[in-house]
Amino acid sequence: MYERENCSAARALEIVGERWSLLIIRNAMFAGQTRFTEFQRALGIAPNILSNRLERFVEAGIMQTRDRAGDSEYVLTSKGFDLQPVIITLTEWGDRWSAPAGPPIIYQHEGCGGRVHEHLRCDDCNASPAPTQVTVRPGPGALPGQAGAP
Known about the structure:
Elements: H1 8-16, H2 21-30, H3 36-43, H4 47-60, E1 63-68, E2 71-76, H5 78-81, H6 84-98
Antiparallel strand pairs: 1-2
């Protein structure tokens, strides 16, 4: 638990940072999986762990359940779909640093077939800063005396 952290990344990790979490969301997002048995079969995840993750996603508003033909479906909400850039970025990092044979999947734009990438972009000048050019400053939710806070 990250109770002592006043950090949005830490709060996000409380919801999606456990093993299997982003893979479940990835499969819902890109493979169209919605049923417990589909997730279990595709990922090989233990039923108790899958049940726990799905329950937490529903509680957090990342997924919602709907009954269809006597079986529950787990469907991503807009909050869940907002994790798409996270999954694409994490995949690209994995492609670069842990996929010696090259990317096992490629994200592409359904409309034209072009590859889709996630990029950092400055709101003011539209530049793509290098990692060393990105700094932090306290935001409106910073606590006095917290690292990076006044």
